[in-house]
Amino acid sequence: DFEVERRNRKLAAMSEISVLVPSYNHARFIERTLRSIFAQTRTLRSIFAQTVGIKKLLVIDDGSTDGSAAIIEKFLADCPFDAELISRENRGLCATLNEGLAKTEGEFFAYLGSDDLWLPTFLEEQVDLLESRSNAVLAFCHAFVIDEDEMIIDRTDNWTNFADGDMLPSLLRGEIFSSPGVVYRRSALEKHGWNQNAGLEDYELYLNLCSEGEFARNEKLLCAWRQHGSNTSDNSPMMLREHLAAQDRAAHRLGIGRSELDRIQSELKFKGVSDHLRGRFKKEAWQLFLENRSGSRSAVDTMKTLMRLAAPQSLFQWNRTRKRQNAIAKYGRLNIEK
Question: Which of 155, 223, 253, 285 could anchor a disulfide with 180, C-beta 3.0 to 4.6 Å?
Fold first, then answer.
């Protein structure tokens, strides 16, 4: 009857999600990215058993020079839901994300980099999680880490469990989940958006969103983050600078005073010593160590760090290669087929 239909439409509207793909020079990977979005399931778990699709897929090609736009246009012709391509000059990732947010609707918003992948139930499970937790401003999950050929070289659940609910302490320590695993509640996201002057697109946003509500953790691996060429995450000195700058800008909103922030940042800098060593920045690692020994949590932590500093750089690269090879042997190639 009319009342059932009205409630049915209301439930469907509540669960609408728009998806953005910011595209830039990923012609080799963009087809697989789009196919992983086309394959998404979405079943609204209610008494009506309503199936709700993605409201809109918006792809913004940010000035690619490798033919990405032509590939995208071809594959969007087969998209099973409303899709649009905007191809324009390069403006940067944060500007592209803000544009995509402004040009879409729906209670939930997610973006997927043009070289990353979603497993088929990603959106369904993340939206269901947000629907079950009204105080959550976003839902995130673990990710497979893959190379150019979809070989699994790591998994983020091997690094840490991450926090559930109050994510701020973890974020302040520099622990951050990968962006392919995130679905946002639009009402919270629109209050902040992405800082277009920031070098890292998500870290400052996550800090700001901590003032709006909790982060809902899904412990499953529901997406894949691709590492290839020179990812931003490999540049640990730049990552550290951006983390510190974002913390400086967000501290007042989070109620963190200067003295407390100095302590937090000293610990973060000391932790950065090990990150720099893994990324072949030994000179910068020594400087961080000498200037931030007060950030060590214990004498044992200091000694372990000194031992890492004394080790030859080739040892870290050997260990990194060994871990990648072991992961490939253990997990093989990622299969996202239903």
Answer: 223
